[in-house]
Specification:
single chain, 101 residues, mainly alpha, elongated
Length: 101
Amino acid sequence: MEIACPACGKINDLRTAAACPRCACDLTVLATIISCAVWHLKAAARELRAGKWRTALAHARRSWELRHSPRAAQLACLAAAALHEGSEALRWRRRAAAGEG
C-alpha cells in the first residue's frame, strides 16, 4: 500500500517503510490506520456475503471513517440497499462514483 508522506509528499510503500526515507517522518500511525480500514473493508465484504447487512454497513462505515476509499463506499451502498435504506444507499453510491479516496 502506498501513501504520500504528510510532511514532504513523497510516495512511500507502507509495507517496506516505517519512516519516510526523504524526511524521516514516522509513518507507523498512518500504516496502522490504513491497516484498520482494510480490516473493516474485508469484514464488510465477509458480512455482505453472509447476508448480515447491518453489520456489513457498520464495517463499511468504519472503514470509510478511517480512509475514504471508493470500495468502502461501494460496500456501504450495497449494504444500505439490502436494508432498503434508499437515501443512504444513494449517498454512498455518489461517494463511490466520485472516486473519493
